[in-house]
Automatic annotation (TrEMBL):
GO terms for cellular component: membrane. It is found in: Membrane. It comes from Marinomonas algarum. NCBIfam families: Na_transp (NF037979). The keyword Transport applies. This is Transporter.
Length: 452
């Protein structure tokens, strides 16, 4: 192990790293996607497949990202090119880090627009406007938001500013402080919402939707969804965990740390499902995924329930915190790069990139109204960016990172950082050399050629 530290500082403890990485991992994927795909694809049976994917593919790639960052103590681009050089391989491997960082920035541009929607809904819940609303009224309210570029811009700008300001302050005073406050708040809010959901008459139905074993629904297609999601949910393939890993203290065990992050992310996703679906079912509504669940069905459900306004507010605070901590993690790698490579001050770098993201976000939000007829390959700007990042760049980044860790980096470097017993090290090597790249390549293939 090397004794270098990053010029940006180190996390105060192993737990702070765990919570910061969990802050990145816990996002809309846990709250609006996982519960729904679980219910649709065989409940408990799907959860088992998903856990296998997390363990066999997600965790090994995450370990690779952490050790690459921690060993080099640099931003993802230089970390990968340094480690390639030390391993007598071409420096051009740094390009994988470059691609990963760019995909993170592209994601941030539309993520910030959605973060803005969440802030807008927080305000709506606070105002009580949704009390007693029907689904049709809530649907119109959401359509009206999307049709209003000035309103979208205001909230997007606020969300960008919130993200930039935390990253501008730095690792210890910025991201670490935000983590210390927001992650415990997130866990508490989630448990409070779970407690509330248990009191509704939809709880048993919600539980069945999530956990009843339905092997008939567990198809090969479902297994692919589990694999693809295991990857997205841990924020892999975007050099985020690599950047966060470069601030990790050297005495902490990477395997145990990464396993804890995977468990926390999974628990949040399971509890989120148990908190959300009972609320939906107890109001006689149908489960759905994505924006419709969060911005139409749930506000209607909260609007009809006792104490619904209070819990609706808490729910949107929870989602806002989850989105904010993920956005912070999307910005950090590029800021670290500009500071290290060009000697920029951190606030200058954060604001500079922030302005670029903000501008690209404007193109995304305009695609719902002013420029809705502008399309790339048949998709509007927002959907196009979502598609190329989540379906192409992210899996590609993951495959290349796994191959890099398994085949390019000298085994003595990885063993030195991971410090695993030899059986586990073998298992890890097999995963990053073969299992993970092949599995993710299969997902990538089917994402690009959907089964009709
Ligand atoms: N991991 C996040 C989620 O599950 C999504 C995300 C992906 C966030 C990539 C940041 C970067 O919602
Ligand atoms: Na997640």
């Amino acid at each position: 192990m090397t004794n270098k530290t990053s010029i940006h500082g180190s996390w105060a403890s192993r737990w702070i790293f765990i919570l910061a990485a969990t802050g990145s991992a816990v996002g809309l994927g846990n709250i609006w996607k996982f519960p729904y795909i679980t219910g649709e694809n065989g409940g408990g049976a799907f959860v088992l497949v998903y856990l296998a994917c997390i363990l066999l593919v997600g965790i090994p790639i995450m370990m690779a990202e952490v050790f690459i960052g921690r060993r080099a103590r640099k931003n993802p681009i230089d970390a990968m090119s340094d480690l390639a050089t030390e391993s007598d391989s071409p420096k051009a491997w740094g390009l994988v880090g470059t691609m990963a960082m760019i995909s993170g920035l592209l994601i941030l541009s539309f993520y910030s627009v959605v973060g803005g929607w969440v802030l807008h809904y927080l305000k709506i819940m606070l105002s009580g406007d949704m009390i007693g609303a029907t689904s049709a009224q809530a649907g119109t309210a959401f359509d009206n938001l999307l049709a209003d570029p000035a309103m979208l811009l205001a909230w997007h700008t606020l969300f960008c500013a919130m993200t930039v300001s935390v990253v501008a302050i730095g690792i210890n005073k910025g991201i670490e402080t935000a983590t210390r406050i927001m992650m415990p708040a997130l866990f508490v809010l989630l448990l409070v919402l779970l407690g509330y959901a248990i009191t509704t008459d939809g709880f048993a139905q919600g539980w069945d939707f999530m956990f009843k074993f339905d092997f008939d629904k567990l198809t090969w297609g479902a297994a692919l969804i589990a694999l693809g999601h295991s990857f997205f949910t841990l924020s892999l393939g975007m050099a985020i965990i690599m950047a966060y890993g470069s601030y990790m203290t050297k005495d902490a065990s990477i395997g145990k740390t990464v396993l804890t992050i995977g468990i926390l992310d999974t628990l949040v996703a399971l509890v989120a499902g148990l908190a959300i679906f009972p609320i939906i079912f107890s109001n006689g509504m149908d489960p759905a995924a994505g924006p419709g669940l969060m911005f139409i069905s749930l506000p209607v459900a909260f609007g009809q329930m006792p104490f619904g306004q209070l819990f609706g507010v808490l729910f949107f605070v929870l989602v806002g915190v989850a989105a904010w901590t993920s956005a912070i993690s999307l910005l950090e790698p590029s800021v670290a790069f500009l500071v290290e490579r060009f000697g920029l001050k951190r606030p200058t770098a954060a604001i500079g990139i922030g302005v670029g993201i903000w501008a690209l976000g404007i193109a995304c939000l305009a695609s719902f109204n002013l420029t809705s007829d502008v399309t790339f390959f048949g998709k509007n700007t927002f959907d196009f960016l979502d598609y190329i990042t989540a379906n192409i760049m992210l899996p590609l980044g993951g495959i290349l990172t796994a191959l890099f860790a398994g085949w390019v980096v000298k085994a003595k470097f990885s063993q030195d950082e991971l410090q695993l017993p030899s059986v586990l090290f073998k298992a890890w090597s097999i995963s990053v050399k073969f299992t993970a790249p092949v599995a993710v390549a299969v997902v990538l293939y089917f994402l690009l050629n959907p089964i009709k």
